[in-house]
Amino acid sequence: MFPHNRPRRLRRTPALRRLLAETTLSPDDLVAPLFVAEGRTEKQAISSLPGQYQHTVASLVEEVGALQRVGVGGVILFGVPEAKDEWGSGAYDPNGIAQVALRALRDEFGDDIVLAADLCLDEYTTHGHCGIVRSDGTVDNDRTIELYARTAVVQADAGASIVAPSGMMDGQVGAIRQELDNAGFLDTIILAYSAKYASGLYGPFREAVGVEIADGGDRRSYQQDYRNARESLLEARADLEQGADILMVKPAMTYLDILSAFREEFDVPLCAYHVSGEYAMVKAAGANGWLDADAVALEQLMAIRRAGADFILTYFAREIAEGLQG
Ligand code: PBG
Questions:
Q1: Residue closest to 38 by CA, chosen among 89, 101, 126
Q2: Is 288 exposed, middle or buried (0-12, 13-18, 19+ CB in 10 A)?
Q3: Which of 11, 98, 173, 265 is the residue whose CA sits 20 to 30 A from 50?
Q4: Model-level pTM?
Q5: 60-98 in b/e burial notation, b at 16+ Cβ within 10 A?
Q6: How many C-beta atoms lie closer than 10 Å to residue 109's C-beta?
């Protein structure tokens, strides 16, 4: 061994390790996904996501207050409607649950915490697909993006600073940008779910929002194939050309290669979605005493930052922010 080659001297004390850490994680970098259900009088725990709830508007406002107090950067809202239809009209109804909730949050918090809205139809459709389904069972891209554009405008009008299209339809970002601009919402940010893979890790989320895809179907004709990396770059370039402001990779842990490729390639803000299944796995193993859930959560979020995310959507937002505050 060469006597001068002793990397361990840099790891000797906690103070040295703090000084030399390349990657940081702060509550500012976290966005909490939150669910709000229509027609509920009390919040209801989601069994597949311990610690997460289907909120009432009132309990949502309370939760966002708590998140803001521990410095969490933002929230992203998902609506759970009382009634669904084939066209997902609850998504673009100005009085749909997400819009009602956004207005309440906007009134309470103004611009003190960043309000984002997931923009998709699946929570609102009877068949559970992210768009309009034709009689042959295929999803109609172009009719769907018209509805996304309408949804964006009602979300912006209700108080969303960020709209986040998650349906993986072609041309969705351009259609949304155009409609927002026409309606005068020039400052509304588009956070594009650019690389979104057809993943088994969304399982707990679908319980959280009560979505079941009809006839044992799946989303593989619009979400990406996890055997492919290169098409993520094409998707991201298309989103940027159409006016995306921020790019997302989703899920996170199994797609850190994609995130790191985005970081190399693009100079816009990047985020990753640490999804429901990623949260549920850590929580379940922790509850069984198989690993230290808090430590693993921090390790995973730090790895996502190291791979290039400026911020992270995570169900751990509140816990981690509380922990970081000491
Ligand atoms: C679609 C959407 C999904 C998630 C976020 N937006 C589900 C899907 O694509 O099936 C999943 C988020 C998670 O698993 O935490 N509206």
A1: 101
A2: exposed
A3: 98
A4: 0.97
A5: bbebbeebbebebbbbbbbbbbeebeebbbbbbbeebbb
A6: 18
Where do the domains of the chain lie? 24-325
CA of 275 from ligand 1 middle (Å) equals 8
- Taking only the tens place, the pLDDT of each residue in 77-129 is 999 999 999 999 999 999 999 999 999 999 999 999 999 999 999 999 999 99
**Do you find a cis peptide bond into 165, omega within 30 degrees of 0?**
no
* Residue nearest ligand 1's atom 11 by CA: 202
Low-confidence ranges of the chain (pLDDT < 50): none
CA 202 / ligand 1 centre spacing (Å): 6
CATH topology of domain 24-325: TIM Barrel (3.20.20)
